[in-house]
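Fig. S4 source data, part A: sequence.
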Amino acid sequence: MAQTGPLPPYGEAIQQAVASGDVARMKTVAKEAETFIAQWGNIPAALEALRLEIAKAEGARPTATTRPAAKPAAKSKPKAKG
């Protein structure tokens, strides 16, 4: 089903603006996204905090479904002898 009305200024709206090639439209969507971020802040961080609170409330520890997977640790280079 196609979305009716204005799109939130992220994801699909940004992709559509880029695909259109219309610089004025891209600038408008960029401004809308900046306004959205200024009003609502860091949505991914807020979502992570929400997921952690859900896990606490359910009496469970965070799992892969409640938090992003950890990045693998960088391997250190062995020290040269000599």
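Fig. S4 source data, part B ends here. The mean pLDDT is 77.
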